[in-house]
Amino acid sequence: xxxxxxxxxxxxxxxxxxxxxxxxxxxxxxxxxxxxxxxxxxxxxxxxxxxxxxxxxxxxxxxxxxxxxxxxxxxxxxxxxxxxxxxxxxxxxxxxxxxxxxxxxxxxxxxxxxxxxxxxxxxxxxxxxxxxxxxxxxxxxxxxxxxxxxxxxxxxxxxxxxxxxxxxxxxxxxxxxxxxxxxxxxx
Length: 187
What we know:
The chain is mainly beta. Helix content is 7%, strand content 35%. It has one domain. It has helices spanning 28-35, 94-99; strands spanning 52-58, 62-68, 73-80, 86-93, 113-121, 128-131, 141-146, 152-161, 171-174, 181-182. The chain has a four-stranded antiparallel beta sheet. Strand 7 (141-146) and strand 8 (152-161) form a beta hairpin. The longest helix is centred in the N-terminal third of the chain and has 8 residues, at 28-35. The radius of gyration is 16 Å and the shape is globular.
């Protein structure tokens, strides 16, 4: 499903999107973390509880979340304070998130946890991980957002335990119908 284009321009219609449910008060620590100077890319506005969508959280140690810049671009965060892992924060066109393969940033140590945020076109429920599921950390978490004009996108997060040095990991995220997304780890 492509974004609606502005007549005569070939560019997608860019407008603000309001999430129907704000993040719960327990997500304040995520907002505070991402509001610090230098905590996010310059193109990402600071999130608020009303703009943040939490996909998964484990107290104040780990969280995967996203917030929309507008109907075209999103910011995402995979925060992990366990073992000083840190995490990552990014800015990305929503369309890129629906086709790209999220990969760990350089240097994750074997045996450590790594979390990613990605997206699928449409309303997609029950996304599951297939392949080397012994490395998958729990279920895939998701939330569907209406970007306007009937354009739905489902944001999803998942976690893996990084395999041993040089070991690859074959993994796919699969909706109940349609094609699976390759999210294999190259090793």
